[in-house]
Design goal:
Length: 403
């Protein structure tokens, strides 16, 4: 069994997958026959038409990948752009855009549930990374097309986990709530998951065993979590004790998160997830207690409300105003909490640039300011912004219950 796992962990398998989708080391192309030489000539011709090497998508990844562009070439643009998009579906920029958009424009009841599933799955997956401490695929032989998360350990792939958690939890929570074709929804979720998983192999960030481990783990976790969260959500909204329990649980989870033997962004990212998800749940409770949520007279499954031109315009207006306020909230709370914590712990801000996992004060500053910042963003997203929209008359139309 272990030998089979080790074989799936072989970085040469990652390289074969990358070659299949058109990613090659330059040394590979130089050492292979006429076909590869023609590919090089074609790449050079295309490069000569561009103003500079920075504008050549065939050999340069996006600016976010921070990869060593001198080591490899990309011979198929379609796969490159598809899998670059696929990996974004598991990055913080996607969470920051998708989650607020969903609450402002789609369905708060489904949003609360899939956010909690996402937070639990990611917390466990991120923690296991720092416990197991399996390195990412060796490069070489694999090609590191992206280096954004290269400091983290590899097992399990949390991109694979979230590639299952978000689309499938939305599918499960909406299948009996709205009238739509389940087969189409299922195919969409499977495609979403497949693109995310293959993207991690394509970019050289995970081995096959990392991806399979993530898929197995998230499947086992979601079997109890999906129904449990569906049952807990009404209690979280209505109980007078839930805000205290949510906040204390969030703080303890941040404190008890597994520690690594070296500095990685894993624990800080886990704190961000816990902060924003607990802020969302507490703000939802506050909305309920203030009477902004009401039971619907209709019974599910509901008819999907497709936006008219006017509704679409208001959707864009809500999104623009909301994101501007979210960016401002992040900037204000990040700066103020960071400055305050450095002052309280008498820590020089310049020393924070030197990451040291053994420096307890540095860890406290990092985790505290991230938790405060993203907890505030969660409150802003669910309570402040929707009530602002309501006040100025651009709130999301909803004929159905948010409970």
């Amino acid at each position: 069994m272990w030998a089979w796992i080790e074989s799936l962990n072989d970085p040469h398998l990652v390289l074969r997958i990358q070659n299949f989708f058109g990613v090659y080391r330059k040394t590979q192309l130089k050492s292979n026959g006429v076909k590869e030489k023609r590919q090089i000539l074609n790449l050079r011709r295309r490069k000569s038409k561009s103003e500079s090497d920075d504008n050549e998508p065939a050999s340069l990844p996006s600016s976010d990948s921070e990869a060593d562009t001198k080591d490899f070439v990309v011979t198929n643009k379609f796969w490159y752009y598809l899998f670059t998009f696929g990996t974004i579906l598991g990055d913080e920029i996607f969470y920051a855009c998708f989650i607020p958009f969903w609450f402002w424009n789609v369905d708060g009841a489904v949003g609360r549930r899939f956010v909690m599933v996402w937070a639990i799955v990611m917390y466990i997956g991120q923690g296991i990374k720092d416990i197991v401490r399996w390195p990412r695929p060796a490069c070489p032989p694999a090609i590191r097309v992206q280096k954004k998360w290269s400091l983290e350990y590899g097992m399990p792939s949390t991109h694979a986990m979230v590639g299952v958690a978000i689309p499938f939890s939305i599918l499960f929570y909406t299948v009996n709530r709205y009238q739509y074709n389940f087969t189409i929804g299922l195919m969409f979720a499977i495609t979403w998951c497949a693109v995310v998983c293959v993207s991690r192999l394509y970019l050289g960030m995970h081995s096959i065993s990392d991806v399979i481990g993530g898929l197995v783990l998230v499947t086992l976790l979601m079997i109890p979590i999906i129904p449990l969260e569906d049952a807990l959500d009404p209690w979280i909204l209505t109980s007078d004790w839930s805000p205290y329990i949510i906040f204390l649980a969030a703080v303890f989870l941040v404190i008890l998160a597994p520690k690594s033997d070296k500095w990685t962004p894993t624990r800080g990212d886990t704190t961000v997830i816990i902060g924003v998800s607990s802020g969302i749940q507490l703000a939802s409770w506050l909305n309920y207690k203030m009477g902004f949520m009401q039971e619907s007279l209709l019974q599910p499954p509901y008819t999907i409300i497709w936006p008219s031109y006017q509704m679409f315009g208001l959707l864009l207006l809500r999104t623009v105003i909301g994101f501007c306020c979210t960016i401002a909230t992040r900037a204000i709370f990040r700066w103020s909490s960071y400055i305050t914590m450095c002052a309280v712990l008498q820590l020089d801000r310049d020393s924070m640039k030197q990451r040291d996992v053994a420096n307890q004060r540095q860890t406290i500053v990092e985790l505290t300011y991230k938790f405060i910042t993203y907890f505030a963003i969660g409150i802003n997203t669910i309570w402040l912004q929707p009530n602002t929209f309501r006040l100025i008359g651009i709130e999301r139309p909803s004929f159905y219950t948010e409970i």
